[in-house]
Amino acid sequence: MWFVCHSFVRFELIMRISVFLSALIFISTVLLQATAVRALSEPTIDRISFEGNLPCSEKALLRGSGLREGVSIFMVSSRQVRDAAVFNMMNLGFLACSVQVDWPDWGEELYEVTVHVQPGRRSLRGGLSFSGDSTFAERDLAELCPVEFGDPVAPSDTAGYRRRILEEYSSLGYLRASVQINLQDFESDTSDFRELEISTASGDVCYLGSITVNGLSQVRREVVSREFDLAEGDPLNMDKMRKGLLSLYTLGLFSRVQISYHGLAEGSDTIDVQVNIVENDYKKVELAGGYIAPEALLGSVWWTQPNIMGNNQSLKMGGIYVRYIDSDNSGNEYMPMIIYEEPWFLSTRWSSQLKLGYYHLQQDFQEVRSYGGELGFSREFRDVWKFNCSYSIDRLRFRAMIDDSVELVQDWITSAGISSGITRDTRIPLLNPVRGKWYKLAGSLAGGIAGGDIDYYTVDGEFRSFFRLNNRLVLAGRAAGSIAHGYGDNQVVPPNDRLYLGGGSTVRGYDFQTLGPEDENGDPLGGNFMLLGNLEARLKIRGSLGAALFCDAGGVWSSLDDISTEDTGLGTGLGIRYDTPIGPVRLDYGVAPTWSNFLKRGKVYFAIGQAF
């Protein structure tokens, strides 16, 4: 027995040594091979040459191919370069182009890539001819064409045109419509124009049968079905279905929404819709902090219940606190609030909001206290227009300077007012627009027919425009004006309704709300008339990083007679932008060039979101 055990131990020891030596030899071999591979220089492209008649720049021809001098020949292929060059030329209208790529072989002394280009004739859009059904007028279909007469025609243009026409048909319930777009031959040997032939067939209208909602436990079915704005028997408008799907996600109640159409594939004229829902844990507490300007810190806390009794009414409780830290303008601002919202007031598309709150502003040169409520209504029209109106009533007490040496103390009074406004928003995208416009016209009336003890009115107008010069540069502009003035025997406007300018979102180069009338200590009084203009060039540098050059101008005055360019503030400067999912992070440096030593007196502004 001892001999057997001893032999077994020896055998096991020999096996372990053998395995260890084999592993050591294997690792050494791999390391030697890796060292040998690294010792060889990786072949890279030394030169790129072109032959033929290039219809565009060399850079534009190779865009998206990955080919450039210094890149490894193993990172790019000749087919990849050819496909990219053909795609780029076809987008310029050279639909019959030909590209050949000569690729270097391994071991050559010079790694040179030669691109042979034959663009052929360029296809320009000629006239449009229509055939098929007459559901839409030819003029209406022609307006959908993304290519103007005489412009180059690309495959993406005809595909996009077909998609637009199909969307028009689907908006009327023609879900089985067919559209064919053919590019005809050149009109002549000397003309590059080619006619687009559009053939349409609507098919039968599909009607909405029933809407079934699955997965609900705390939300009522009507909350889901009303967002589609369709009733049983209506033509199945796919545009409304898409908008309804987006609306369900914006409610914040659901983590997943999936829509199935039963009967569409089977050829039925009545389509039953099934909506599968996964609900969110939607009660939430929000904490936020930041600063309004270098002189003001901000903090807020909110608790939200967005689904009272399963009807999507929301209750929001919390408040905002602002601390002014500038030595000459220190103070505190408190705004606790309770907000109740009804998104479908009386089962209509009007939304309503009831707000109850308390307000306290305390600074050395002014103090405001108020408590009260506001009832408002709003509605969106055609996706871009929004109208709102409201009535508010407050108990108000304030102490403020009304000119450079006179202080007004107003004990508790009642302030009541009605207000309304309309906006039009075509900006794309909303958080960081590159094109579109934004308009606003609003007004309010306190006292008079609204009741209350203090009479004044406000008028606000604003216009913003965004124009994309190219893929990297956007030009943005804003013009705004406001009036806040008393009427009748009253000429006093409460401090929190007066007009102020200065800071990171209005005129950069000035401290927060310091542009305009001041008292004898240099504290802002606010004004009754305001004008503001901004111009900004936003440049995309690389990836999410961008830069901006800006020029701001504006002024605040107590009366029309005071309006003068001498009292207008001018600010200019530059900034850095970094795009994030919640908007661009903005760091600006602004100066007022009319000041002495203005570079040393410049202001730094940090914020999330563009200035306008």
Overall description:
The strands form 4 sheets. Strands 10-11-12-13-14-15-16-17-18-19-20-21-22-23-24-25 form a 16-stranded antiparallel sheet, with no helix packed on it. A 3-stranded mixed sheet has the order 1-3-2, covered by helices on one side. It has 7 helices and 25 strands. It starts with a helix and ends with a strand. Mean pLDDT is 88; it is low at 1-13 and 34-40. It has 5 domains: 1-40; 47-118, membrane protein fhac (Ubiquitin-like (UB roll), Roll); 124-201, Roll (Ubiquitin-like (UB roll)), CATH 3.10.20.310; 207-279, membrane protein fhac (Ubiquitin-like (UB roll), Roll), CATH 3.10.20; 284-608, membrane protein fhac: a member of the omp85/tpsb transporter family (Porin). Helix content is 16%, strand content 45%. It is globular, with a radius of gyration of 34 Å. The chain is α+β, with helices and mostly antiparallel strands.
Key traits:
612 residues, globular, 16% helix, Ubiquitin-like (UB roll), 7 helices
Tell me how many strands there are.
25
CATH architecture name of the largest domain: Beta Barrel
**Tally the helices: what do you get?**
7
Compute the separation of the termini in Å.
Answer: 92 Å
Radius of gyration: 34 Å
Task: Tell me about the largest β-sheet.
Answer: 16 strands, antiparallel
In CATH, what is the class of the largest domain?
Mainly Beta
CATH superfamily of the largest domain: membrane protein fhac: a member of the omp85/tpsb transporter family
Q: Record the strand order, biggest sheet.
A: 10-11-12-13-14-15-16-17-18-19-20-21-22-23-24-25
Structural class: alpha+beta
Mean pLDDT figure: 88
**General form:** globular
Predict the CATH topology of the largest domain.
Porin
How much β-strand is present in the residues?
Answer: over 45%
How many distinct domains? Answer: 5
| Helix percent band | 10-25%
* Spans of at least 5 consecutive residues with low confidence: 1-13, 34-40
